[in-house]
Design brief:
about 55 residues, single chain, mainly alpha, 3 helices, globular
Length: about 55
């Protein structure tokens, strides 16, 4: 999803996390859903070179 910059699978991925039976993953899914438009934009845009720490 990130390499392809394709956010279409995001809702299904979040459903899988929520249904995993693991509270930490369900909590992560809920947090990502709270600001899903921003998450989608991050997937589509990717990491900017300015945000990459120097080696």
């Amino acid at each position: 999803m990130l390499d392809a910059r394709d956010a279409a699978p995001l809702p299904d991925s979040l459903d899988q996390l929520a249904d995993s039976g693991l509270s930490a993953l369900a909590s992560l899914a809920n947090a990502l859903r709270e600001d899903q438009p921003a998450v989608v934009q991050a997937v589509l845009i990717g990491q900017s070179p300015a945000a990459t720490p120097p080696c």
